Amino acid sequence: MLNDMDWDMAGALGRLLAALKEQGMTADEAFEQIDTDEDGKLNGPELLNGLSALLGEDLDPAKVSRIITSSDVDIDHRVDLFEWRAMLGPTGEEE
Protein backbone atom coordinates (compact mmCIF):
# COMPACT_ATOMS: atom_id res chain seq x y z
CA MET A 1 0.00 0.00 0.00
CA LEU A 2 1.35 3.42 -0.97
CA ASN A 3 1.63 6.12 1.63
CA ASP A 4 0.58 9.71 0.93
CA MET A 5 4.08 10.79 -0.01
CA ASP A 6 4.37 8.06 -2.65
CA TRP A 7 0.92 8.59 -4.15
CA ASP A 8 0.68 10.42 -7.44
CA MET A 9 -1.79 10.69 -10.30
CA ALA A 10 0.40 8.89 -12.82
CA GLY A 11 0.87 5.95 -10.49
CA ALA A 12 -2.81 5.79 -9.65
CA LEU A 13 -3.82 5.91 -13.30
CA GLY A 14 -1.22 3.29 -14.17
CA ARG A 15 -2.67 0.97 -11.54
CA LEU A 16 -6.18 1.65 -12.83
CA LEU A 17 -5.20 0.86 -16.42
CA ALA A 18 -3.48 -2.34 -15.28
CA ALA A 19 -6.60 -3.35 -13.33
CA LEU A 20 -8.82 -2.71 -16.37
CA LYS A 21 -6.54 -4.80 -18.57
CA GLU A 22 -6.41 -7.59 -15.99
CA GLN A 23 -10.22 -7.65 -15.80
CA GLY A 24 -10.61 -7.42 -19.59
CA MET A 25 -12.55 -4.16 -19.33
CA THR A 26 -12.45 -1.16 -21.62
CA ALA A 27 -12.43 2.36 -20.21
CA ASP A 28 -16.02 2.79 -21.38
CA GLU A 29 -17.13 -0.41 -19.66
CA ALA A 30 -15.46 0.70 -16.43
CA PHE A 31 -17.15 4.10 -16.69
CA GLU A 32 -20.55 2.45 -17.12
CA GLN A 33 -19.90 0.17 -14.13
CA ILE A 34 -18.81 3.06 -11.90
CA ASP A 35 -21.68 5.36 -12.98
CA THR A 36 -24.21 3.70 -10.69
CA ASP A 37 -26.83 6.44 -11.01
CA GLU A 38 -26.49 6.28 -14.82
CA ASP A 39 -26.41 10.07 -15.26
CA GLY A 40 -23.35 10.01 -17.55
CA LYS A 41 -21.08 11.57 -14.93
CA LEU A 42 -19.02 10.21 -12.07
CA ASN A 43 -19.46 12.04 -8.77
CA GLY A 44 -17.11 11.69 -5.82
CA PRO A 45 -18.83 8.78 -4.06
CA GLU A 46 -19.27 6.85 -7.33
CA LEU A 47 -15.62 7.34 -8.23
CA LEU A 48 -14.43 6.45 -4.73
CA ASN A 49 -16.49 3.25 -4.59
CA GLY A 50 -15.86 2.29 -8.22
CA LEU A 51 -12.10 2.80 -8.15
CA SER A 52 -11.82 1.05 -4.80
CA ALA A 53 -13.66 -1.94 -6.25
CA LEU A 54 -11.61 -2.01 -9.47
CA LEU A 55 -8.29 -1.64 -7.67
CA GLY A 56 -9.23 -3.94 -4.80
CA GLU A 57 -8.16 -1.44 -2.16
CA ASP A 58 -9.69 1.31 -0.09
CA LEU A 59 -8.85 4.74 -1.46
CA ASP A 60 -8.59 7.97 0.45
CA PRO A 61 -11.48 10.32 -0.48
CA ALA A 62 -9.00 13.22 -0.69
CA LYS A 63 -7.06 11.36 -3.39
CA VAL A 64 -10.24 10.70 -5.34
CA SER A 65 -11.06 14.39 -5.01
CA ARG A 66 -7.67 15.17 -6.54
CA ILE A 67 -8.46 12.86 -9.45
CA ILE A 68 -11.73 14.69 -10.05
CA THR A 69 -10.13 18.13 -9.75
CA SER A 70 -7.35 17.26 -12.19
CA SER A 71 -9.72 15.67 -14.74
CA ASP A 72 -12.75 17.94 -14.49
CA VAL A 73 -12.41 20.17 -17.56
CA ASP A 74 -15.87 21.78 -17.32
CA ILE A 75 -15.50 22.32 -13.55
CA ASP A 76 -18.81 20.71 -12.56
CA HIS A 77 -17.09 18.59 -9.86
CA ARG A 78 -17.88 15.40 -11.75
CA VAL A 79 -16.08 13.39 -14.44
CA ASP A 80 -17.96 12.74 -17.68
CA LEU A 81 -17.04 10.10 -20.26
CA PHE A 82 -14.97 12.56 -22.34
CA GLU A 83 -12.98 13.61 -19.25
CA TRP A 84 -12.62 9.95 -18.18
CA ARG A 85 -11.18 9.00 -21.58
CA ALA A 86 -8.85 12.02 -21.56
CA MET A 87 -7.69 11.14 -18.04
CA LEU A 88 -6.84 7.55 -18.99
CA GLY A 89 -5.09 8.59 -22.21
CA PRO A 90 -4.83 6.67 -25.48
CA THR A 91 -4.47 3.28 -23.80
CA GLY A 92 -7.80 3.77 -22.04
CA GLU A 93 -9.85 4.65 -25.11
CA GLU A 94 -12.15 2.34 -26.97
CA GLU A 95 -10.49 0.58 -29.90
Any overview of this molecule?
The protein has 95 residues and is mainly alpha-helical. The protein has a single domain, classed as Recoverin, domain 1. The protein has five helices and two strands. It has a two-stranded antiparallel sheet. It is globular. The N terminus is likely disordered.
The number of helical segments is: 5
Cα gyration radius (Å):
12 Å
The strand line-up of the biggest sheet is: 1-2
CATH topology: Recoverin, domain 1
Uncertain regions spanning at least 5 consecutive residues: 1-6
Within CATH, the superfamily carries the name EF-hand
Global outline: globular
Query: Averaged pLDDT, please?
Result: 87
Do you know the CATH architecture? Orthogonal Bundle
Largest sheet at a glance?
2 strands, antiparallel
Q: What is the total tally of β strands?
A: 2
Order of helices and strands: HHEHHEH
CATH class: Mainly Alpha
* Cα-to-Cα separation, first versus last residue: 32 Å
Report helical residue fraction. Answer: 55-70%
Q: What structural class do helix, strand and pairing data support?
A: mainly alpha
Please, how many domains? 1
Strand content: under 5%
Write a brief structural summary.
By secondary structure, the protein is mainly α. It is built from 5 helices and 2 strands; from the N terminus they run ααβααβα. The N terminus is likely disordered.
Summarize the SSE layout with pairings.
Blueprint: H1 9-22, H2 27-34, E1 41-42, H3 44-55, H4 61-71, E2 79-80, H5 81-88
Helix pairs in contact: 3-4
Could you name the key traits of this structure?
mainly alpha, Recoverin, domain 1, globular, disordered N terminus
